[in-house]
Design brief:
15% of the residues lie in helices and 46% in strands. With 136 residues, the protein is α+β, with helices and mostly antiparallel strands. Strand 6 and strand 7 form a beta hairpin.
């Protein structure tokens, strides 16, 4: 699935719930690249109803995880402006740990986040987000 869209209300999942899944010991920030790991337990609310018999991490949660990791690494509160492109290649289920690598560039107060989500060393999702500093 690929998408390009503008986002008016970027999150339906609260940042605090996603931040609890971010493994703080895994965060690195080196010269415009941020990386870190998230582990999503079965109790993560994003799985509720998506889907009942086979819980799957929604794409919106994956994109929010990218933004939260970038915000943490850059020590800036980033607001999602648009999803430039995104491709989801694997299903993420409860108990999975995903490793996210983000290449960050800044231009005219916008941050471009080129990301890759890895699951078991295989690409689970790739894409590009456009963000600005500020509150959602």
């Amino acid at each position: 699935m690929s998408m390009t869209t503008s986002i008016n209300n970027p999150l339906s999942i609260e940042d605090s719930l996603l931040r609890q899944c971010l493994r703080s010991d895994s965060i690195t920030y080196l010269s415009e690249q941020v990386s870190g790991c998230f582990t999503f337990k079965e109790s993560f609310p994003g799985f509720a109803g998506h889907f009942i018999d086979q819980p799957v991490l929604p794409a919106v949660a994956q994109l929010a995880a990218v933004r939260i990791l970038a915000s943490t690494g850059l020590k800036k509160q980033l607001r999602l402006c648009s999803v430039q492109k995104a491709k989801f290649k694997s299903i993420i289920i409860p108990g999975h740990t995903i490793h996210i690598t983000i290449n960050v560039s800044e231009n005219n107060s916008y941050f471009t986040l080129n990301f890759k989500l890895l699951l078991d060393n295989k690409v689970a999702a790739i894409g590009e987000l456009l963000c600005r500093e500020g509150i959602h």
